[in-house]
Amino acid sequence: MQDKYSLAKCEQYGRRLATRLSQQFFGPQPAATLDGPALLQFTPIRQVNLLVLRQLLGRWQQEANALRSPYFDFEAPPVRAALGQFMNVLSRHIRLNREALEPLLAQAVADTLVLATVAGTAFERLLLPPATADTEEAVPLATLRDHLRYFDQAKPFFEGFVNSLPTGNAPLSREFLRQRFDLYHAAHAKELPALAQVVAAFSALLPLTEADLWGDGPAKPAAPASPAPAPMAPEPAPTPPAPAPAAAPQVTTPPAPAPTPAEPTAAPAPVPPAAQPVAAPVEAPAAPAPASPPTEAPLYAKLKATQPSTAHLADTLRGAAGGPASLAERGAPKVTSLREAISINQRFSFINELFNGENMEYHAAIQHLDTLPTAEEAAAYVQQELATNHDWSLKQEHVGKLLKLIERKFAAA
Description:
The protein is an all-alpha fold and about 425 residues long. It folds into 2 domains: about 1-300, no CATH class; about 305-410, no CATH class. The protein has 18 helices and no strands. It has helices at about 5-25, 35-40, 45-65, 75-90, 100-115, 120-125, 140-145, 155-165, 175-190, 195-205, 300-305, 315-320, 325-330, 340, 345-355, 360-370, 375-390, 395-410. The chain starts with 6 loop residues before the first helix and ends with a helix.
């Protein structure tokens, strides 16, 4: 069944939709930029927004790694702490223009379609970290759990797979993970979301049918499945019926028999909340397929290597109630406002993991915590209300991070 769908067509549709949405948003305001909160709401399909953020944080990790130098010890604890603080501040100042956003958006759309059609490929792309010469072949279970934060439409399925793996501190080989996933997929395939729902959501933005994603479906471009610039046609389509000679193979939407439904000129697609809709333009030729950026573990995964493992939730909550300000003693900077101290990565993590994706509930809780005068009252609020109302019994790691921020807020100056 996996061979039924074409990865090349998923990528082709991703480029077309990214071009259309970018034109609608940036067309009337070419100099506009997007910040983090706007990015998380750029499309009505949350999975697409999450995968854009996933790529962005991967680039964020690359920027941090670029700071390494043979002349300085970047692994020294004070340097790691300062670097983490710097990257948290930087993460609150995201600025994406059209040139930066469009390739990330195209890849996110393609990966969302792959997630709905070819689960095995989605597992390799989105759950496993990329295998490079600099990474170990074995994968820690914690890394897989970290990558789950970017799943939405099929999260219960992939979360169930990760929870089915043997626990322990020993990393798991990639071959073992692939074999286990194949077995899990065969037994739980019915738990994946229906493709019709995903197609309908995308079709509201740019017409799409399930048949358009088939390997032998209506849209059958004579182009390789590689995301190289080959399937691109940046120039306007020529008037003569014959295709342009020489050059790389070009793909334009009109010529193919029974093509992917063309965009209606008069009916604009839904627009991100941050922008006013403009009349839907005649579909522009697809932009060059971006090379899929290397996906690395988020920066906090390295920074937390020096942190002790999180205790059981009850112990975590008890420890925050009356112990000494250990973070302050270790030299961690005091924070004056939780809202300002929480980076976009942490905010996204808290909303997704602790507040079940409810943005308003997260902001209300953080705002209330910022008004409490003592650490004891803040810990009591977390333990007696938040942890109970949102069932944080299995979220010790994320609760621990929130409590450490509270501890820093009330630490002695």
